[in-house]
Structure formats: C-alpha cells, structure tokens
Input
Amino acid sequence: QITTLINHKDKPKRSDKTLQAIQRVGQAVNLAVGRFVTVGEAIANENRELKEEMSVACIEARRAGETIAQLTDVASLDHPESDSHITIFTDKTGVVKAARLLLSSVTKVLVLADRIVIKQIITSRNKVLATMEQLEKVSSFQEFVQIFSQFGNEMVEFAHLTGDRQNDLKDEKKKARMAASRAVLEKCTMMLLTASKTCLRHPDCESARINKDGVFHRMRLALEQVIEIVTDSRPNGENEMAPISIYSGIKEFKNKVEGLRENLYFLSKENLSTMLEVILEHTEDFTDSAYTSHEHREHILELSKQAKMELEQLVSVWMQAQNQKTKDLMEDLEVAILKTCQCMNELKREVHSAATSLAADLLKYHTDHMVLKALKITGVEGNLEAVAEYTCKLSEQKEQLVEMCRLLRHVSGTEPLEITCIHAEDTFQVTGPQIISAAETLALHPSSKIAKENLEVFCEAWESQLSDMSLLLREINDVFEGRRGEKRVYLSLPRPGKHSANLKALKPVKLDTEEQAKIAKLGLELHLLTSDVDSETEKWEDQDNEIVQHGQGMSSMAYSMYLFTRGEGLLKTTQDLFHQAEIFATEGTKLASALHALSDQVRDDEKPLLLLEAEKLISMCKQLQITAKASAQGKSATFTKVDACILKTRNVMTLLCQLLPLCYKLLRKNKAGNGCLKPAPPWKEDRIRTGPSARTAERRVDTFGIKSLENHITNMTFLESK
Output
C-alpha cells in the first residue's frame, strides 16, 4: 500500500475515482498501523523491561500512519488552493518521510517483540532444567509424582513456544535442527517418566541408573541446542562445522567447472583438483562399507577413475585456452566441461542408488522388530543369557542402521535433510544402548511391571525412528526427482490474550495451532494408512501394474494431506487441500475402473466381491468430490470442510488397504508361477525366529504434538499396586 502511494504518477488531471482510491489506500495504511500498534502496546504492558522502548516505537508508528492519512485526505482539493492544505499532490516528499518513519518504527517493534520471544523461551528452558534437577534427586514416589506433574506442564509450555519459533525460522537448516531437538525432547519426556519410576522401584540396580542417566543427559543436550538455535550462538564461541556430503560437494564442483565458461582465470587448477579429491574421499564411505553391494562398489570405483581422467582432460584444454583463446579450443573446453559434469551426475546417481536401495532393504528387513520382541520375551522370563544374545543382535542392527544413516546423509540433497539424517544416526546410537540397559533391568527383575513398561517405551522409540526413516527415504527420493516444496507461516510473535480480541481477523488460509491440534489424530490415522498402503504395494513385483500405480498415487496424495494437518508439506492453504482432495477422488475413480478391468480376468465366483468393492470406492470418491467442491465461508465453516475432507480421505484409504491385498490374492491365483512376489533380501536366511512374523497393525509416530503431550501429562498414572 505504501509503495502504491509513493509510486503513483503525478498527472495534471485526476479523476474522482483516482482521488478516492488514493484516499482509501491512505486510510487503509492508517488502520493497519493502528491494529499493529494496538498489539505492540499490549506486548509493552506485559513486558515492563522493554515497555519504554516499545511504547516509543509504537507512538512513532501511529504518528506516521496518521500523517499518511492526512496527506492522502483529498477532500481538501474541493477547496480553493489558498487554503494551503498540504496533500500528497502538493508535497510528495512528506509521504516519503512518513513512510520511512513508519517502516523504521514497525521494524523496531518487530525486533523488540522478537527479543521478548527469545527471553520467553530461555525462561521456559530454565524452568524445565530446574525441575529436571529436582526430579533427578527425588527418593520417593510421592515426591516424584508431584514434581513430574509440574515438569509436564512446563514441557507443554516449552513445546508451544519452540513450536511457534520453529515455524518462524527462515533458515531451513536451523528449522531442521530445531525440529530434531524438539523430537528428542518429546520422546525423552516419556522415557524420563518410566526410567525414573524404574530407578525408584529398583534403587540398587546399576542398569536402571545407567538407563535413567542417559535420558537426562540427552534431554539436557537437546535443551541446550534449542537455545543455541534461538539465540544464534554456540558455547565458547565455537564455529558450527557444517556436514559435508557428496551431493553438496558435487554441486559446488560443477558450479566451479561451469563457471569456466564465463571466466578462465577465477580459480586455479589446484582448487578444482582438491575439490574432486574431497568428493572421491567421501565415496570411500560407500566403497568401504560392508553393506554396499559388489555391483554398486564397482560402478562407484569406475566412475571415480573416470572423473579423474575427465578432470585431467579439462585442465589440459583449460590451460591451453588461457594462453590462446581460439574458437577450436573454446569448443574443446565446452566438450570437456560437459563430459566432466556428466560424469559427476552419473557418480551422484550411483551413490544415490546405492544408499537408497540399501535403506529400502534394511527398513523392510527390520520392519517386524523381531529382536525387540525377543528381548521383551526373554526379559520377562528372566533369561539373562538369552537377553545377552539378543542385545548383541540389537547392537549389530544398530550398526547397520547407523551406517545406513551415514550413507543417506551423503545423498540427502538438502541441508535440512542432511541434519535429519544426522539426528536419525544419533537416535539409533543412543537408543540402542538404552534398550539394552532397560532389557537387562527387566531380566534382573522379571516380575517388575515398571521395568517391563520402561522397556516398552524405549522399544517404541526405536520403532518410531524406523518408521520416520521410511518417511525420510521418501523425502530424499522426492528431492532427487525434483518433487519438494517449501512453506512459510509466522506464529511466534508474542500474543497478548485479551488485547487481540478486538483486532480484525484475516481470512484463514492455513490451519492455526489449535486447529492442527484438533485434527492431529485424524491426520495421524491417515499417515498410518499411507504406510499400510505402501507396504501392500511393495509386495507387487509388477510395479507398472495399473492398480499399483493408482494406489501409490493415492497414498502419496494422502501423505501430503497428512503433512497439511501438521502445517508442513506442499499443500500450503486450505484451498490447496481441497484441490488435492478432488484430484485424490479422481485417482480413486480411475482405480475403480482398473478394478472393473481386473474383474474380467478373474473367475465368476470371485467377480461379485471385486465389483462390490469397486462400486463402494466410486461412491466414496463421489462424496469426497462433492465435499471438496462445496463452498465454505468463514473460519469455522472452512475448518469443518477441512475435517470432512480428511475424514473422507481416511475412509477411502481404509478401503484401499482392504482392496490391495484382495487384488494381489486374485492376481496370484490367476497368474500362479509368474513371480508376483519380490525376492527376499539375501540376509533373510539369518533371521531371528522367536515367533510368527507379523507386521504390526499400527506404528507409533512421535512428533512433538502438543495435544498428545498434554494428554500424557493429564492421563498419566504414576503408581502401580505393590
């Protein structure tokens, strides 16, 4: 609006329409400033230490807004010029000065508000730390219950503050670090509860003490990292070492090589050679890994050798071109640049394939959590020898998963995903030994309900991280294939409660924090269903089958809708969600057509069931389309429509989970011997067998969900019968 005023063209003749438009803009600026200043003044009243500075900035902003309104009041133009009333048309510099003052004062208000937010987070962290120290020292259940209740409330407050701050961070790298720290804090809150209870029940048990100390230590590190991110500082003035990956190295190397087209002299050949050496050193993480296939290892070594040769050729032509810039030499240089970049692209593709195929195989192999089940069983039996055997197997599994995370980091493609890989690696490194100490405690006290509950919590954390790895792998593949979006919503400015009630609300385009909390359970159910659908589609060897492709497409769209319920992902507004729901319903209708086609291939006695399910799918998709296209006015109606769309999408996905195994079964019957199943990974021969292999019906997905944390605190039962 200010830009519109400043940039308006001075014309000798001005229509009434133009004059009225300018006056409306000036009034709109003044009203907007008034609303903004009302919030600033409310913040000032609630924060005495900054009240004076904030009040001065608010007064300046209000004065500037009123000045702009006066200068754009064109009613005086009807009066004779002798009235000497100054307007935007007689003194444009006045508007420019007022605009500068306004922007300066508004910026000052925002900076002061930001300082208040940071102070709130630090104060909240200090409360949490102080209560944690009390929790560490308690010696009775009664005292523990009382202090943990206070601790839970403080953690909920900290979750609110840091969640809003995470959304406001512009630096995606910091945002990823904040998300990782908050995830640790949420998971550790439950771990701290059960680990402390176990220690109180078995005070002389060394493994229980080690287990509890590990949780406290990890929480303190996570709290410290949150403060580092919020204050943009590091302890002892250390510089943060950015993780170096093959992807980022190749990207920088290619930029330098392609820069030779513009400037032959901006870097030395030694610089390029050093950059390539660093990249090839990192490829040794793949070639030295025991989990890299022989085929991938050979290809990576061949491409590394080829990259050296291509660079040698490039440097040779480049040096000649520096001395003699002929047309032929420049053409040779272009060819050398293209060949070098092509080789690096092939190397990038090869390491990506090596890392993601390993990850997919490992995640599929460990999806039944057989080692964890065995530890629970042998722990309850008090079988120390068997527990020791399975803890060794868990340590081996941990090393596999840690190696997988290290390799995925190299191919993650973005800094936030690199940080997520590092967080996953740390989680496996820490949680593995914690599960072992919890299992040892249970084996020593096999009748202890608390020790059993404690082991369950740590096992759930492990399973949750494995589930998160499947999502991370999908994101890494999305980046590689160019399917990744960004998001931006500001949440963490201080919110004075009663003062904001009179402010005019903007038209809602995204779910706010409260709405996200309301719809979180439904979103989580949708997420779990996408995992189930993905598991079903992975069983099909023929991935080009029409039913599989439609199923995968619907799962991908449902996953985007789940991310929307968390305020993340590609769907940024409610309108995006409704559009996605329409496309999802269309994809479901196409799947129904494919089911009709399949019904023509099956026996007569199997056809009615398939056709019945297809008709049910068509009906549900039509209902979803009607809901998505229906108009909704106002915040409440829009949220109701969002809720209905997610609910109906969930119902379609539930049906899809039933349809896919049915279709798979019918195809196997009709195409026996055609190899519909994927071959099992080679290491399945060494599988641990403690019971029937079964996929868990539901995975626990731990995000720092404030509502779920509040429910933990509200509904916790701390004491069990003696």
Residues 80-85, 485-508, 673-708, 710-722 have pLDDT under 50 and may be disordered.
